[in-house]
Amino acid sequence: MSQDVIELETSLAYLLKEASSALRSAMDAALRPFGMSVTHYACLELLAQRPGSSNSELARGAFVTRQSMNVLLQSLEQDGSVTRPAESRMGRVLPAELTTLGRQRLKEVSTAVRAVEVKMLGGMTATEQTAAYSALKSMIASLSDDTDTGRDREPGRPRKIAPVAEGPDS
Fold it and tell me: Which pLDDT belongs to residue 160?
């Protein structure tokens, strides 16, 4: 058999994708009773940890397009979970912040989300969890471009991406 053939059973990339898919399914199931999607939850969590984030920052952090994030932010504004100024103070960026309702909704779902993570890590010792975390961080850094190895970022913070021209959906 050729060295160029990838064996799915032993491909780390395939296993990571399979784990990602399983995590997404478990998260979707946990969030469904709350009427939320993974992206919806991610947006609320990002705003709780980084108030005033722009549409573009939130999109990068939730791994979606700016357009998708803009639609979600409009929906969150309409349901009272998020607030954004009517006009930008600088450029076109409209910084978003959680409202009291948004914080309450996030608090409601956080237990369900944490339960998924605990279940995912349930078969691992604390040492194995630490090793997995380090291995994943190393993989992310190795695949990041040369100008940003990812090592200077806070855990869980998206890597820095070159500025993108802000549009009206920001």
Answer: 41
Q: Considering the entire predicted model, what is its pTM?
A: 0.75
User: How many of the other CB atoms lie within 10 Å of CB of 66?
Assistant: 19
The string of pLDDT tens digits covering residues 94-118 is 789 999 999 999 999 999 999 999 9
Long-range contacts of 42-46 (CB under 8 A, 24+ apart): 43/69, 43/72, 43/73, 43/76, 43/82, 44/76, 44/81, 44/98, 44/102, 44/105, 44/106, 44/109, 45/106
Give the number of C-alpha atoms closer than 13 A to the C-alpha of residue 73, restricted to the C-beta side.
Answer: 28
Q: Distances from the Cα of 119 to the Cαs of 23, 28, 33, 34, 141, in angstroms?
A: 10, 14, 18, 19, 26
pLDDT-based confidence at 146, cuts 50/70/90?
low
Are the CB atoms for 105 and 79 separated by under 8 Å?
no
